UniProtKB/TrEMBL annotation:
Source species of the chain: Streptomyces zagrosensis
UniProt GO MF annotations: transmembrane transporter activity
Keywords linked to the UniProt accession: Membrane, Transmembrane, Transmembrane helix
InterPro entries, sorted: ECF_substrate-spec_UCP037395
Annotated TM spans: 27-47, 59-79, 85-104, 124-145, 151-169, 181-198, 245-263
UniProt keyword Membrane present: yes
Name of the protein this chain belongs to: Energy-coupling factor transport system substrate-specific component
Keyword Cell inner membrane: no
Amino acid sequence: MTGPPGVVSQTPAQRQARPIRLGPRSVAALALISAIGVAAFGWPLLAESDSGLAHSRDAPWLFAALLPLLLAVVVATIADTGLDAKAIAMLGVLAAAGAALRPLGAGTAGIEPMFFLMVLSGRVLGPGFGFVLGSVAMFASALLTGGVGPWMPFQMLAMGWVAMGAGLLPGPHRLRGRAELVLLAGYGAVSSALYGLIMNLQGWPYIGGLGSSISFVPGDPLPENLSRFLAYHLATSLGWDLPRAVLTVILVLGLGSTILKALRRATRRAAFDAPVTFHPNEPGT
C-alpha cells in the first residue's frame, strides 16, 4: 500500500523495530541529563561578575558529574526496556565504526565523517539508541585519538543530542527514498554546524588573550555577551563548521540510501521486538 511519492504506508507489523523503546525512566534520565547539559554549556553567559569561576576549577567537577549521568541513561534504559545482547552488539559495532571514522579527517578544516553515520543510525534505530550511540562513539573516539580532556563529556553529550535528534525526525516508518535523504541531509548540515557552535560556547569563556570585542565579560548583559560570542564564533570557527556541514550533506546524499537499507535490514534480522517463546514438549527438553 503506497501513498505520495517517497511515502510508504505500513501496517504496525511492518514497521521498523527499534532496539530501545523509551519508557518513563529512560525519558526522565534523558530529560535530566539534557537539562544539566544545557546548564553546563550555557551557565557562563549568566555568571555573576564576582563569581570567580574558572575552567581549571570547574571542568573536573563537570567531568565527574556528566559521565555518571550518561551511564545512568544506559542503566535506566536497560532497566526500562531491556538492552539485550543483540542491541549491545549493534551498539558496539556502530560505536566502533563511528570512532574509526572520526580521525579520518585528522581534524582538518572540521572534516569529521562520523557525523553522517550518527545521523543515519539515529534515524533507523531511534532516539534512545541514538543518544547512547553518539555518547559511546565519541567516548571511544576520544580514547582512540588521545582526545581525553575536560571537553570530552561535553562532546559526548553534544554528539548524543545529534544522534537522538535524528531519531526524532518525522516519518521514521513512512518516509523513504529521495525525500528522506533530503530531510537527513538538511538535518545533518544543521546539527553538525550547531555542534561546533555549542562546543565553542563551552570553551569560549575560558580562552584568554582574546580581543575585547570578542571576549567573554562576566556579568555583562546577556545580549552583549551573546553578540561577542557570535563574533568569536564567526571569526574562529566558521571555516570548520561549514566544511563539516558540507561533508555531512555529501555523505548522506551519496551513501545514505545504501547505509539506511543495511541498517534496516540488520534491524529486521535482529528482530528486537520478537517475543521469546519456549516449547517444553520438544525433544531433549
